[in-house]
């Protein structure tokens, strides 16, 4: 007779799997930042976006061939185009920031995306602005003011590009949240690659530089890890509560601080770390209250 697995071990298995998937997310975002930084100044951001779509399509192609027409099923074709125009612009802002700002500052500003997503969800999806969300938004604005220090530190176009990217990512998240009610995540990823490919081609014509083998390697890394970051996060969220996933996502900051220091001799400024911590605290508090509310109502 085979020994039974203890119930506690069974309940912990999805948690460990979620941690493993989030580790994949952390590595994906970190590798993407390194790849973009290595390409900065040599390959234009338009061309990076083109190869990002090509790399993602090469990875998705086997799934498309296996699933056939089913993978193309969508009830929101107009939203697919709208989402990808916004996401394309947001990615360009993020890539611009990676080339101009310390990596830690880029990631810290990017953490404001959930704050903007909350505001957009209230305005356009009819979601309620409860106490937790008010705290998250308030902490988010305090955190970004500490990071940017308007009136004390100069706010250059790199900072504005990343801030615009965070708003764009929030818009993308809000649209995606609506679309996943009817569309499969893999369909959303496929449409993202297919729609953004001609956009990248059209813009790259004006700035084309034939990449060498090392640059081709980094360009493929951008495409591969850009896709894996989305997939790993989705898998982690399917296995564990946001109260587990969000703190792990915040670990991107100390990881990128270490990368910036070791590879590029960048030292993270204290206001950036403090501001990011305040933003995280507001987000975590909001998620914690939301989970308590769901458990209380049995949702």
Describe this structure as you would to a colleague.
The structure is a single chain. The protein has helices at 7-39, 45-67, 77-100, 103-110, 113-124, 131-148, 157-179, 185-204, 213-239, 242-250, 252-264, 270-297. It has one domain (17-297). The protein is globular and about 55 Å long. Helix 5 crosses helix 6. The protein has 299 residues and is an all-alpha fold. The two termini are 38 Å apart. Residues 5-10 have low confidence and may be disordered.
Provide a brief overview of the structure.
The chain has 299 residues and is mainly alpha-helical. The protein is 80% helix and 0% strand.
In terms of structural class, how would the helical and strand content be classed?
Answer: mainly alpha
How far from one another are the termini? 38 Å
What is the element string, with H for helices and E for strands?
Answer: HHHHHHHHHHHH
Percentage of residues assigned to helices = over 70%
Radius of gyration: 20 Å
Please tell me the total number of domains: 1
The low-pLDDT segments are 5-10
Q: What summary fits the major beta sheet?
A: none
Percent strand: under 5%
Tell how many strands the DSSP assignment holds. 0
Approximate shape: globular
* Mean pLDDT metric: 85
How many helical elements?
12
């Amino acid at each position: 007779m085979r020994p039974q697995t203890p119930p506690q071990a069974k309940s912990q298995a999805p948690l460990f799997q979620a941690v493993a998937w989030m580790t994949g997310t952390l590595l994906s975002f970190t590798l993407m930042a390194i790849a973009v930084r290595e390409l900065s100044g040599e390959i234009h951001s338009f061309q990076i976006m083109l190869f990002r779509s090509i790399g993602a399509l090469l990875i998705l192609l086997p799934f498309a061939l296996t699933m056939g027409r089913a993978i193309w099923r969508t009830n929101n074709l107009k939203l697919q185009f709208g989402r990808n125009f916004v996401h394309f612009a947001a990615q360009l802002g993020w890539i611009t920031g990676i080339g101009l700002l310390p990596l830690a500052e880029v990631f810290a500003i990017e953490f404001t995306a959930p704050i903007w997503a909350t505001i957009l969800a209230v305005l356009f999806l009819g979601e309620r602005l409860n106490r937790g969300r008010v705290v998250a938004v308030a902490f988010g604005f305090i955190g970004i003011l500490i990071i940017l220090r308007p009136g004390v530190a100069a706010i250059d176009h790199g900072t504005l590009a990343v801030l615009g990217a965070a708003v764009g990512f929030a818009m993308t998240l809000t649209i995606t949240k609506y679309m996943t009610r009817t569309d499969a995540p893999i369909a959303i990823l496929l449409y993202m690659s297919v729609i953004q490919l001609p956009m990248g081609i059209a813009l790259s014509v004006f700035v084309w530089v034939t990449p060498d083998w090392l640059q081709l390697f980094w360009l493929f890394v951008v495409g591969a890890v850009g896709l894996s970051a989305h997939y790993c996060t989705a898998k982690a969220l399917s296995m564990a509560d946001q109260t587990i996933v969000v703190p792990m996502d915040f670990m991107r900051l100390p990881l990128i601080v270490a990368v910036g220091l070791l590879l590029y001799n960048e030292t993270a400024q204290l206001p950036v770390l403090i501001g990011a911590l305040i933003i995280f605290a507001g987000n975590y508090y909001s998620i914690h209250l939301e989970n308590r509310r769901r458990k209380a109502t049995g949702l």
